[in-house]
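JOB MANIFEST
job_type = single_chain_structure
chain_count = 1
residues = 318
[input]
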Amino acid sequence: MVTRRDLLKYTAAVSTTIPLHVRLLQAQERTLISRMIPSTEEELPIVGLGSSATFSQVANSEDISALSEVMRTLVENGGALFDTAPSYGGGVSERVAGQIVNELELQNKIFWATKVNVAGRRRGGSADPSQARAQLETSFERINKSPIDCIQVHNLGDPPTQLGILKDLKAEGRVRYIGITSTNENRYPDLAKIMRDEPIDFIGIDYAVDNRGAEDMILPLAQDQGIGVLAYLPFGRTRLWSRVAGRQVPDWAEEFDAITWAQFFIKYVTANPAITVVTPATSQAHHMLDNLGGGMGQLPNEAMKRKMIEFVSALPSA
């Protein structure tokens, strides 16, 4: 399986007019684009950090210093949103990230987005929300921030119970924004119903240049309903890295300031005006810096997005 680390090594080895590390530093000097949260018009930097995949793997190791550098790089280069969940790494991602942020005294610089995934147990036909509430209290303890910026129902778990709890927490001032996520296109109709019926601030969905199902219904609906969107898996987990293995970023990508594959993939996602923040996961500070470059400079227009789709569609499938 080809990883982004493999691709960066390959790209660095290719002779170019400007070395890769210099171009990354140039991207760093630009301003990170911000988007408004529709329900409040608060602005968020358009590229954040996810904590699944390699982040959770390193969080489960004895040495978490790399993750400290990732969090520091996020904040020092204009990013803010950190997306996590109690289930990532068996709860370790959320706990370790909370530990790091508190040690680095970054609590007020991180926009925390976590989730609830414990369903209400059924007793005699009615739901018992105690386990979900207990999980949420654990998140408050790990993160050590009140209010938590955003909590979402994880993958359409138990919306009647979990959204009910989140609405109560929001009314109490313990959480600022609430929402719901789905990374299963087959469940998009269920997600859409909640978007229409419930007073949510955010959704989280999977979205990439080769995974565009959200464009048909979900993203237009989010704009119509005034709901913010967190975009997950902009690299298709590792799928897109495999598809571009051994290839250089096309020259025409420089028209929208994409100089690496990570920026190419991220800029396709951020070019959609419905997207509030994209949250690629990483455990390496130089990857974090590279990702942030995807939220700087020009974004592709509609004609260029079609060209990106055609280019990726012509590549061998992973």
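[summary]
The CA atoms of residues 229 and 275 lie 5 Å apart.
The domain at 34-235+275-297 is CATH 3.20.20.100 (TIM Barrel).
exit_status = 0
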